[in-house]
Amino acid sequence: MKPKITLGKHSGFCFGVKRAYDLTCVNSKDCDDVYILGKLVHNNDVCEDLYKRGIKEIKALSDIKEGTVIFTAHGVGPGFYEKASAKGLKIIDTTCPKVMKAQRIAKNFAGKKYQVIVFGDKDHKEVKSIFEWSGKKAKIVGSPTEAKRLKLDKAKKYCLVAQTTQNVEEFKKIIAFLRSNLKNFVFFNTICESTDDRQKEIRNLAKTNDVVVVIGGKDSANSKMLHKISKSINKKSYFVENSKQLKKNWFSDIKKIAVSAGASTPEWIIEEVINKIQK
User: Fold this and answer.
1) Domain end marker among 81, 96, 111
2) Using one digit for the tens of pLDDT, what is the confidence trace for 133-183?
3) How many domains does the chain divide into?
4) 231 in the same domain as 207
5) Quick one: 50 and 89 in the same domain?
6) From the CB of residue 129, how many other CB atoms can be counted at a distance below 10 Å?
7) Beta-bridge mates of residue 257
8) Checking DSSP bridges between strand 256-261 and strand 4-7, what pairing results, if any?
9) Are 159 and 105 in contact (CB under 8 A)?
């Protein structure tokens, strides 16, 4: 009897990634010399698709003198818009609206003399952009433990936001800690609903299946978070970028298999993985 394969309902491109991909494909058609500042999304298969369309990747604005620059879904700081305009570059801005919301909150509250705190990975492009929108004054914490190490000034006003792909349960712990230790504290849940839905779903899939396969780019924060959550519940949780990384022995004597995919994983990769598992 063949094992049952369940694909999570909240798998594949989220709204922000689909929007970025579509904006890039449509708006770059009529442009010469199109460049992406970094990876559009953290998925190598998507990036390869864009390169085949003639779109080139650059690491810095100084790498080009003219043409069109695409700002990725993760967002950039305000200085990048100024530099691109000064160089006369055309801009295609694919910043996810959810990321943009976190950026503008950081700017607004930093301007009101609040100490902005960002819950996220300090090395992630999105978090760097939020930091820059705060006037480079935000404090970044990567966990509840790091939040507890902050030197808090009860006379100050504080504002907390989060990287859109962060762990919802950990964010709640940070809110509870800051709320109990500060008089003037506000927070904004800038974790994307899609992220929340995926994390809730992966917990259930990990509990109700023998094996869980999470598909995502090796640099995808939300995909790695899904795998981390799943692995904490079900030891037979595996992380792959595509079907080539599947191993036959993962599925020996297995009755139920769950497949989930991060927000930057395209549908064609999900289909390839499921087809290979079935074979």
Assistant:
1) 96
2) 999 999 999 999 999 999 999 999 999 999 998 988 999 999 999 999 999
3) 3
4) yes
5) yes
6) 24
7) 5, 211
8) parallel
9) yes
For residue 7, list its beta bridge partners.
259
Active site residue 201: no
CATH number at residue 264: 3.40.1010.20
Which structural domain, as residue segments, surrounds residue 138?
Answer: 98-187
Outline where DSSP puts E strands in the chain. 4-7, 34-37, 56-58, 68-71, 90-93, 114-119, 139-141, 157-162, 184-187, 211-215, 237-240, 256-261
Taking only the tens place, the pLDDT of each residue in 15-28 is: 999 999 999 988 87
**114: three-class secondary structure by DSSP:** strand
Those residues with Cβ within 8 angstroms of residue 246's Cβ, 6 or more apart along the chain or in another chain: 213, 240, 273, 276, 277
pTM above 0.90, yes or no: no
Q: What is the mean pLDDT of residues 176-195?
A: 95
Q: How confident is the model at residue 29 (pLDDT cuts 50, 70, 90)?
A: confident
Same domain, 155 and 205: no
Domain boundary (96, 125, 147) is at 96
Q: 116 and 42 in one domain?
A: no
Q: What value does the mean pLDDT take over residues 31-58? A: 90
The one catalytic residue among 126, 132, 170, 241: 126
